[in-house]
Amino acid sequence: MAEFTMELNDEQKEVRDWIHGFAADVIRPAAAEWDEREETPWPVIQEAAKVGIYSLDFYAQQYFDPTGLGIPMAMEELFWGDAGIALSIVGTGLAAVGVLANGTEEQIGTWIPQMYGDANDVKVAAFCSSEPDAGSDVASMRTRAVYDEAKDEWVLNGTKTWATNGGIANVHVVVAVVDSELGSKGHASFIVPLGTPGLSQGQKFKKHGIRASHTAEVVLENVRVPGSCLLGGKEKLDERLARARERAKAGGGERLKNAAMATFEASRPAVGAMAVGTARAAYEVALDYAKTREQFGRPIIDNQGVAFQLADMRTSIDAARLLVWRASWMAVSGKQFTSAEGSMSKLFASETAKKVTGQAIQILGGNGYTREYPVERMHRDAAIYTIFEGTSEIQRLVIARTLSGMPIR
Ligand SMILES: Cc1cc2nc3c(=O)[nH]c(=O)nc-3n(C[C@H](O)[C@H](O)[C@H](O)COP(=O)(O)OP(=O)(O)OC[C@H]3O[C@@H](n4cnc5c(N)ncnc54)[C@H](O)[C@@H]3O)c2cc1C
Q: Which residues form the Acyl-CoA dehydrogenase/oxidase C-terminal domain (predicted)?
C-alpha cells in the first residue's frame, strides 16, 4: 500500500507542470471562443492528442500512479484551464473506463483505440446511462437489451439523455436492462459503434455552462449489435445474473446496492478534482484583481471584507483538495470507504467550486459579471459539478446512509 503523502514527488511535479503548461498555453486561450461557439473543440482535442494528453496511455499512467494522486492532479490542472474544453478532452475516459472495467481483453484491444482515434484523426466516445426518467434513480432505467439467440445479436431499444459526446462519438457505451427484476444488478453494458442502424442523436442541449462539451440525447431504435458487443461476454453476464438472483432471493438486496456504491466511491474524487481546478482558477483571477483594482485610494484587497473572502476561498479550495487526495489514495490502496469518503470529496469540492466562483464574480464587481473576464464563465461551469456523477443531494444521501447504516430516503 502506498504511503500517504501530501507532497508530490519529482516525477509527479514534472507531469503536473507539463499538464499545467498545456492548460495555460492551449486550453485557457481557447476557452471563451468555444464557450461562445457551443461546439466540440476538435482542434484543441487534436492538440492534446499530439502532445499525448488525449490518449489511453496518459490516463493509464495517471490511474496506476501508486500514490493515487495522478488522476486528481491531472484533472485539477486540465479543468483549471477550462472546464468545457477539459471535459471534451476527458469525456472519452468515462466510456473507456466502462470498457476497461467490464470488457474482455479482446474488447479492450478492439474498442479503446477506436474511442481515441489518433492525432491525425481524433475520435471521441460516450458513456450513456442516464435517461429522461432515470437520472439519480438509475435502477428505474428503461432501455432494454434483448438477446436474439438465433443470430447471436442483442437488440437495444430506448432513449438515453445527457450523454457527453452522445451522437458524435465513434463508440457509444450503452447501459441497458437485461433483467428488469434485478434493479441495477440487471443492467449490462454494450458497445454501439457510430453508424449502427437505429442509433441516432436526439436533441443537443444548449447549456448554462461547460458549453464546449457536447451533451445530447441518444436514441436507440431496434439497434442490433453482435453478441461480441456485450461487455464481458454472455457467459460472464449469465453467471453474474444467476448470482444476483440467488442473493436477491436470500434478501441480499442491500448488499448489492452497497457493492455498486463502493464503485462510485472510487470514481467520485476525480470529479471533485475537476471542481478544485475550476475553483482555483476563479480564486486566482479574483486574487490578482483584488491586489490591482483600487477604490477609495487603495487596492480593494486592503479591505477586510474582500481579503477575508479570499482567505475563505483559498481555505475551502485547499480543504477540498485534501478530501479529494484522501479519497483517491483510499481508492488506489483498496481501503474501504467506511464513511463514504469518495462522496464527501465530491460533495465538498463541488459546493466549494460553486461558492468560490460566485465570490470571485463579487470581487470583480461589474467586470466579474461580464464575458470580458473569465469568472462569469467559471461560475456557469461550476454548477455542473453539483449535478453530474450524482447530485449533491445524492452524495449527502450516500454519506448519511453510510454513517448511519440506515436506509435513509
Ligand atoms: C452536462 C451534463 C453532462 C452529463 N453527462 C452524462 C454522461 O456522459 N452520461 C450519463 O449517463 N449521464 C450524464 N449526465 C447525467 C447526470 O448524471 C444526471 O443529470 C444526474 O445524475 C441527475 O439526474 P437528473 O438530471 O435526472 O436529476 P433528478 O434525478 O431528476 O434530480 C432532480 C433533483 O432532485 C434531487 N433528488 C433526486 N432524488 C433525490 C433524493 N432521493 N433525495 C434528495 N434529492 C433528490 C436531485 O438531487 C436534484 O436536485 C450529464 C448531465 C449533464 C447536465
A: 259-403
Determine which one of 7, 235, 389, 393 is catalytic: 389
Active site residue 47: no
25 lines ligand 1 (CB under 6 A): no
Residue 197 Cα to chain centre, angstroms: 28
**How many domains is the chain built from?**
3
Residue 3 included in any domain: no
Query: CA-CA distances (angstroms) from residue 377 to 50, 111, 294?
Result: 27, 35, 24
Determine the structural domain holding residue 304 and report its residue range.
259-404
Q: What is the DSSP string of 69-84?
A: -HHHHHHHHHHHH-HH
Ligand 1 atom with the smallest distance to the CA of 391 is 47
- Domain termination residue (choose one: 122, 140, 167): 122
Q: pLDDT per residue over 199-235, tens digit each?
A: 999 999 999 999 999 999 999 999 999 999 999 999 9
Together in a domain, 107 and 193: no
**pTM reported for the whole predicted model:** 0.96
Q: Is 128 in the pocket of ligand 1 (CB under 6 A)?
A: yes
Contact 189, 231 (CB under 8 A): yes
- Segment 3-28, tens digit of pLDDT: 777 888 999 999 999 999 999 999 99
Distance 390 CA to ligand 1 centre (A): 6
